[in-house]
Amino acid sequence: MTSGAHMTPEPLTPDELVRDHTVYACVMGSRAFGLATADSDTDRRGVFLAPAPLFWRFEKPPTHVEGPAEEQFSWELERFCALALRANPNVLECLHSPLVEHLDDTGRELLALRDAFLSREVHRTFLGYAQSQHRKLAADVRQYGAPRWKHAMHLLRLLASCRDLLRTGELVIDVGTEREPLLAVKRGEVPWPEFERRLTALTDQADAAAGRSALPPAPDRARVEDFLIRARRASCGSGVPEGAE
């Protein structure tokens, strides 16, 4: 078992995984949502495919990496797919960013699978996240007299995108003509009772849309798993030093 034919490659650093093995990268946050202002950061998100031989060691590749740039976060492909299959709002929105910065063949196939991740489960996960955020905002109001208005703005945005996804079957994250009304919330120009009224209305609309949605009841796990297996197989020689395969 000492011949080069059985050697496994040395682990790659997190920065190397992101730099050399990213399959998809995009801009998220306010810039992707159409809500950017002069002081907005540029939030970058990505997906990297760790070469399969790196999983043969006891020490596995990381499931996610922060950096190397500021405001940059990446997931390993399997972790990303698992979260998307659970209808994680942040991950599903990442798949639908209009601002794509990098895409290879695996990334193109991942984007072609976007519909496989969408199901009526989004009603539960998006609204569950919204309810959690609303409780935090309400606690701020009780303690400080006002919520974090930027978070309040994004809460309304998320609920509207969920409602429209349930209605149309498509996840569109750019807010379009709702930009100014939402920015008014961020500036604190909308009273808390009016914010809560809008929140309740959007929740009711999402509930109603869920009952009539054409989305499937569950994501297409088999289709996604087939993609992941093929990507893993194709990566067996990726990033492996000569003589290490």
Structural class: alpha+beta
Number of DSSP helical runs: 11
Largest sheet, in brief, is: 5 strands, mixed
Question: Biggest sheet, strands in spatial order?
Answer: 3-4-2-1-5
CATH fold type of the largest domain: Beta Polymerase, domain 2
Report the average pLDDT across residues: 93
User: What's the gyration radius in Å?
Assistant: 21 Å
Q: Please give the alpha-carbon distance between the first and last residues.
A: 13 Å
Low-confidence stretches: 1-5, 239-245
Indicate the percent of residues in helices: 40-55%
What is the class of the largest domain in the CATH system? Answer: Alpha Beta
Count the domains. Answer: 2
The H/E string reads HEHEEEHHEHHHHHHH
| Strand content range | 5-15%
CATH architectural grouping of the largest domain: 2-Layer Sandwich
Shape: globular
Q: Tally the beta strands.
A: 5
Which terms would index this structure?
single chain, 245 residues, alpha+beta, Beta Polymerase, domain 2, 2 domains, five-stranded mixed sheet, globular, disordered N terminus
